[in-house]
Amino acid sequence: MPRLLFLLVLLYCGANAASLSPVSVDVREESGRLLIEGLYQPPVSAELAHAVLTDYEAMPAFVPGLSSSRILQREGPVLKISQHGRYRFGPFTVSGDSVARIELRGREEILCQSLSGSQGEFSSITVLQPLNGSTQIRFRALWQPGNALVATLGTGTVREHVREQLASLQQEMLRRAALAGK
Fold first, then answer.
1. pLDDT for residue 143 is more than 70
2. Cα(119)–Cα(97) distance, rounded to whole angstroms?
3. Which comes out higher in pLDDT, residue 90 or 4?
4. Count of domains forming the chain
5. Among the residues of the chain, which ranges form H helices?
6. What CATH number is associated with residue 68?
7. Is residue 127 part of a domain?
8. Range of the domain at 28
9. Which of the residues 61, 126, 159, 166 could staple to 110 if both were Cys, CB 3.0 to 4.6 A apart?
10. CB 32: neighbour CB atoms within 10 A?
């Protein structure tokens, strides 16, 4: 029986990993700011991808380091959210709070602009494009770190941190698709 359970776990993990799309992230420093670009293509509908990307209050359950996330205000397609997280960068842990304005432009674009917080100035756009039964997701952000430690860790560390977050979003999309039988 233990061998059968072990084989089932291996098969499940293998099948799950096979459906993951590679997550590409590039980080460059430009004039003291970080330009972050991410691209991935999960095999889910744009509707499901959008639902996960905008499920702000549930995000602490599936985004590493995020300990709280709540919607403070909603006016049509514009939201104001508050988030708190603790993030590990090697041997260091950095806590951060942020309040951001989110604008939902249909199911195609999500705009984010930081309003306040310890994370520094941040703006991003996420674009969703349906492609052959999957959804291509492009993430582009400009970030001026508000923490000197984070600013000195380098683009490689930030790249891996963003890749981990995008991969966790994709994993949640796949989990929800499996629950829905899609």
1. yes
2. 7
3. 90
4. 1
5. 2-18, 46-53, 148-152, 155-179
6. 3.30.530.20
7. yes
8. 22-179
9. 126
10. 8
